[in-house]
Amino acid sequence: NAHDRTNAWHLDGGIFRFACANGLVVCDEEFGRIRIRHMGHEMNEIIESTEKFADHVCDLSNSLQTMKDTKLSKKERSDFALEALSIKYPKKEQLPFDSDLLLTTRRVEDEGHTLWNTLNVIQENLIKG
Questions:
Q1: Where are the alpha helices (DSSP H) in 37-129?
Q2: Are 72 and 113 a contacting pair, CB within 8 Å?
Q3: 70 vs 122: CA distance, rounded Å
Q4: 8 Å CB contact between 88 and 102
Q5: Who contacts 56 (Cβ-Cβ below 8 Å, separation ≥6)?
Q6: Residue 1 has what pLDDT?
Q7: 80: Cα separation from own chain's centroid
Q8: What CA–CA distance (Å, rounded) separates 53 from 34?
Q9: Which residue has the higher pLDDT, 31 or 6?
């Protein structure tokens, strides 16, 4: 926020984690962003936007925690990976590799058999290949 009207009021929410030992932080999940122009806004507008944002983040946080608390069996993880690969490649004969390869963890932080970990591992492997 700048008093010379060169910047807007910003509020960003998400899940951040350390990416390396030197303190670099990256956003794993973005929950939302609010921008309000500095010129002519009322304090009530900022307060109201912040309250709505906080409610939204709370709901997302609860959903995220549920995913982190949900343990998946090996079969459930395998089925999840196959379904994800089938969405990307709708024709079964087009599947370029075995779906279980999508379950290969690249980072220690993503190890585990929760729904949250599995989703992140599969998503990363589908995007990065």
A1: 43-69, 74-88, 115-128
A2: yes
A3: 16
A4: no
A5: 31, 32
A6: 47
A7: 17
A8: 8
A9: 31
Report domain extents, the chain. 9-69, 74-128
Could you report the per-residue pLDDT of 60-105, keeping only the tens digit for each?
A: 778 888 999 999 999 999 999 999 988 888 877 777 787 888 899 9
What is the radius of gyration, based on Cα positions, of the chain?
A: 20
Let me know: does 80 contact 37? Beta carbons within 8 Å: no
Q: Per residue in 1-28, pLDDT tens?
A: 455 556 677 777 777 766 666 767 777 7
Distance CA 92, CA 102 (A): 16
Residues written for the chain: 129
Residue 81, both tokens = 């990976």
Are 69 and 114 in contact, with CB atoms under 8 Å apart? yes
Q: Which helix (H) or strand (E) holds 28?
A: strand 25-36
